């Protein structure tokens, strides 16, 4: 396995995370309540937690099955995308992404997710790629389906909203044979 490599799409550069990325990740992801509305977690909430997350991503590059990228549009950082929790026995991995709010609705998440799914299945030869989203997050569900995934199920009350209430979680996935055919 190659791990995180630089990838290009028509409009985007997906590159490794660097320590210099921490300030913008904290500002755009950690300080905006809309960014955690549907994810229910925030590793970028403080400057310290952001630095720890960035360092963890960088250290993860040494491990098999850890992928963490910054998404760039031109010179602008517009989000993150990664794949985590690689299970070598099942040849399975989960993807996740965040696009800065100013860039929502422009197809960037779909473009990045599609390229990461392609890379994981075709280049890394991983058999199954899956992702999830908050049941109310229609935009994220569209990203996952446009990246080739199929809705596989609903986990009832599997997430806790920032206000403490429970929420359902939608699960999506794609397997190699579906991608190739």
List the helices and strands and how they pair.
Elements: E1 7-8, E2 12-16, H1 22-30, H2 33-36, H3 47-60, E3 67-73, E4 76-87, E5 92-99, H4 108-123, E6 128-134, H5 138-146, E7 150-160, E8 166-175, H6 176-180
Helix pairs in contact: 1-3, 4-5
Question: Which structural traits does this protein have?
Answer:
6 helices; globular; alpha+beta; eight-stranded mixed sheet; 181 residues
Sum this structure up briefly.
The protein has 181 residues and is α+β, with helices and mostly antiparallel strands. Helices cover 31% and strands 34% of the residues.
Beginning-to-end CA distance, first to last residue = 23 Å
Report strand %: 25-35%
Number of strands: 8
Mean pLDDT: 94
Radius of gyration: 16 Å
Provide the structure class: alpha+beta
Uncertain runs with pLDDT below 50, 5 residues or more? Answer: none
What is the count of helical runs? 6
What would the principal axes of the Cα set say about the shape?
globular
Order of helices and strands: EEHHHEEEHEHEEH
**Biggest sheet, open or closed, and with what strands and sense?**
8 strands, mixed
Strand order, main sheet: write it out.
1-2-3-4-5-6-8-7
Helix content: 25-40%
